[in-house]
Design goal:
Layout lengths: L11 H12 L2 H13 L7 H29 L3 H9 L4 H34 L6 H13 L2 H18 L2 H27 L4 H9 L9 H15 L5 H6 L8 H31 L5 H9 L7 H12 L4 H33 L4 H21 L1 H13 L1 H15 L1 H9 L9 H31 L13 H17 L1 H9 L8
Helix pairs in contact: 1-8, 1-12, 1-15, 2-10, 2-12, 2-13, 3-4, 3-10, 3-12, 3-18, 3-20, 4-5, 4-22, 5-7, 5-15, 5-16, 5-17, 5-18, 5-21, 6-14, 7-15, 7-16, 8-12, 8-15, 9-12, 10-20, 14-15, 15-16, 16-17, 17-21, 18-20
Length: about 500
């Protein structure tokens, strides 16, 4: 097995499929349709889709380009790469980026476990035909020890892939991603043949322009795009450390961003079309939309409560239900692999062997994920806190490039591969001005409205799971720890600074 420094993806296809494994996750299938429905107006969800696509161009693609180039230039994990490119004083920013992705990993593996359990449930049990039956399946699952067991199974399974190195990750994604895309395509074709599905699809794309005046739609469009693409997580940076110098950054970034969002659109068409086709004959549009917007405990309602019931009402529903949850499980596993790899690479850079690092990540990840597995309020809080933190992570990625010099970075790290497209000055503008501005404006806007309009009586309560203060406290503690240990982290990663010999 080659060393971490020398290991590379064997081909461009392997790299692209692995990065799509980062991007195409449960956020596309489980989260995106619900977020689109929640931000729909009376006439449709098209305005949200417009904002979401705008942030693909103004947030996600520029950051994906930056992450690919940072990883290929630094050839290390996020701490080492940020310290190399931005300077040793800013290694703590790389640590924060890495921690955000790791904190998401703690509860994301719980979701992966849910998906794996529901695959087995769809295989061995009849589909529920009522709300009561479907809720009973979920409640029985949650009340026992199965969420913890499947959370642990997900961590161990993905850890087994990561412990064998980047070639093992590549091989896994060459199976997972094509299979997942095939499942989504089959579900899409089946949805298009359902009577009444086109009403739901038309509603998905029809805009209600009045919704654009609401700040929430912009905040959720940005955070959803960050969730969708993996931009700003440090995950693409970590995989970029293993890409060949000859592989172009810009083309790969566009394939990653637009390919991922295409999967999200297909998943939304499947969900909207299926729900409207199945329920449209017996419910009004507002009633159908209310079901789609119902998040349930920890946003489980649409996927884990309603979808099994909908499949029960469809021809060949048993087969489609198995395929749906199998695709969801594959999406979760491919993304969880990348999160374990990110944390593993940070620990390897700090001096651990890959085997010791993976065992440590899987063990600690399992232990710290247990609270989210047994308490959905904790799950919801962590999803809220660290999902919003992705905006800070993205801003830190942009800051690393700005510190180096955006024009110099484009010349030295981005526009270097023969046959690749050039990033151009537009990319420089987006990294320098658009990324920081979007993060600052949206966070300040949302924090202000939370304090004055949405939750004037609870925004300052750090024990409220969805308050502004709970975000600020948790972010502050993590940043404070990494600032304090910055010098030690950087010296362990890059080595101590040697005094110049006169």
């Amino acid at each position: 097995m080659p060393s971490e420094k020398d290991a590379r993806f064997s081909s461009r296809l392997g790299l692209i499929l692995s990065v799509l494994g980062i991007a195409v996750g449960t956020g596309n299938i489980w989260r995106f349709p619900r977020i689109a429905a929640s931000n729909a107006g009376d006439d449709g969800a098209g305005a949200f889709l417009l904002a979401w696509l705008l942030f693909l161009l103004m947030w996600s693609v520029p950051l994906i380009i930056a992450e690919y180039a940072l990883g290929r230039s630094g050839r290390m994990g996020v701490i080492g790469t940020v310290a190399k490119i931005a300077g040793r004083n800013y290694g703590w920013m790389g640590a924060f980026i890495g921690f955000v992705a790791t904190a998401i990993m703690f509860y994301y593996s719980v979701v992966a476990g849910w998906c794996m359990y529901y695959v087995t449930q769809m295989v061995v049990s009849p589909l529920p035909i009522s709300m009561g039956q479907s809720a009973a399946v979920w409640d029985a699952f949650q009340q026992g020890g199965l969420p913890v067991a499947f959370h642990g199974l997900a961590m161990v399974l993905c850890g087994f892939v990561v412990i064998r190195g980047i070639s093992s990750i590549e091989k896994a994604n060459k199976v997972l991603i094509p299979t997942l895309l095939g499942i989504v395509l089959v579900a899409l074709i089946r949805t298009l043949t359902l009577d009444g599905s086109w009403e739901g699809i038309a509603f998905l794309f029809r805009p209600d322009w009045s919704t654009l005046a609401q700040p929430r739609i912009w905040l959720e469009a940005l955070t959803q795009n960050a969730w969708d693409t993996g931009a700003g997580w440090g995950l693409i940076l970590t995989y970029g450390a293993y890409m060949h110098a000859r592989h172009g950054v810009v083309k790969n970034s566009l394939i990653t961003g637009f390919g991922n969002n295409a999967v999200s659109i297909m998943a939304a068409v499947v969900i909207f079309g299926t729900v409207f086709a199945t329920l449209g004959a017996e419910m009004s549009r507002p009633e159908v939309l209310k079901i789609m917007q119902t998040s349930g405990p920890a946003a489980t309602g649409l996927t884990f409560i309603w979808m099994p019931q909908l499949f029960a009402k469809m021809p060949f529903g048993e087969v489609l239900a198995i395929l749906f949850f199998l695709g969801l499980a594959f999406a979760a596993i491919s993304s969880l692999i990348s999160m374990i790899q990110l944390t593993t690479r940070m620990l390897v850079d700090l001096g651990l062997t890959r085997q010791s690092a993976v065992v440590s990540v899987v063990t600690v990840g399992f232990v710290l994920g247990v609270p989210s597995a047994v308490n959905l309020n904790i799950f919801g809080n962590q999803d809220f806190v660290w999902g919003v933190a992705l905006m800070i992570s993205g801003a830190f990625v942009a800051f690393s490039v700005i510190r180096y010099g955006v024009s110099a970075f484009r010349r030295d790290a981005v526009d270097v591969a023969d046959g690749d497209w050039r990033a151009g000055r537009l990319w420089e503008f987006l990294i320098t001005w658009a990324i920081p501005s979007q993060a600052i404006v949206l966070l300040v806007w949302w924090f202000t409205l939370s304090a004055t309009v949405y939750a004037p009586d609870s925004w300052f309560n750090p024990f409220d799971p969805y308050s502004v203060m709970t975000i600020l406290v948790q972010w502050g503690v993590v940043m404070g720890v990494f600032l304090y240990f910055n010098k030690r982290l950087v010296n362990r990663t890059l080595g101590p600074v040697r005094p110049e010999v006169p």
